[in-house]
Amino acid sequence: MAVRIAEILGCRRLGRLMRTYTLAMPEGLTWAGGANMKIGLFEGLDPTMGSRIKGCDLATRNAESTALTPASFDPKYTRVVSISTRPQDGVIVFSTRIPDNPSIFKGDLATYEVGDSLFILEVNNHLTVPAEGPLVLLTQGVALSSMHAFIRDILEAGGEGPIICVNVVEPVEELRDLMVADERVQYIFKSNRYAFEQTVQTILKNESTIRNSRFVVLGGHGFMKQWIHGLRTAGIEDERIFIDRLDSQRSIYFPEISP
């Protein structure tokens, strides 16, 4: 896709570390619930070009960005983030944590204010789950944000649930805005890996869950490998485990199981 530029309409702090950004939606951009996008900063461009474009008005920024490609950006100044809204919401919202000792990307992102712009380099969604039947979502930290739009899509498509979302995060308060208020959806937050593991093991002791539920695993590479392995070991068929990865990458997470 072509590189798009999106104006920052809002930046809200949630707790001490979390920030939620609201972006204007570029014309013609669309995505499905559960999508993520790669964003880039002006600092990732050639220094002369980046500083010149950043100081222009929005119309000029848009015009200048038409010649850019994802390869125009230094990878250190790009990051993949989860989109928590849908096109019908009219805005793009994402949340990210900016720690006390941030990366180069997050340190520069923290200086961006309302009226500044971010580049959208690509939008991806490899998570396709049928609406019918119960769901268990195993998520890590701000990976929960893409599940906000995903859950809304599932419910509006006729999904009757129940949907159980188990998330390992600290602190919980920073993610309250990412919850969908619906009686068909239950959220369980755990502050550490051990408590998360115990909760998942309890869920997997339910015979109905083992037989009927589909599972979505979303988080970092190690988290996904651990829990996909755990689900398969518990007897969940591969066809009932969904991940936000290309089909060509599934073998990384679903290796052959030794008899």
The end-to-end distance, rounded to whole angstroms, is: 44 Å
Order of helices and strands: EEEHHEEHEEHEEHHEHEH
Instruction: Return the CATH architecture of the largest domain.
Output: Beta Barrel
Whole-number count of domains? 2
Which short descriptors sum up this protein?
Rossmann fold; 2 domains; 27% helix; Elongation Factor Tu (Ef-tu), domain 3; five-stranded parallel beta sheet; 259 residues; six-stranded antiparallel beta sheet; alpha/beta; 26% strand; 11 strands
Question: Summarize this, please?
Answer:
With 259 residues, this protein is of the alpha/beta class.
Protein described:
- This protein is 27% helix and 26% strand.
- It is of the alpha/beta class.
- It folds into two domains: 4-124, Beta Barrel (Elongation Factor Tu (Ef-tu), domain 3); 135-253, Rossmann fold.
- The chain has a six-stranded antiparallel β-sheet. A five-stranded parallel β-sheet has the order 9-8-7-10-11, with helices on both faces.
- Strand 1 and strand 2 (18-24) form a beta hairpin.
- The protein is elongated, with a radius of gyration of 19 Å.
- The N and C termini lie far apart (44 Å).
- InterPro entries: FNR_nucleotide-bd.
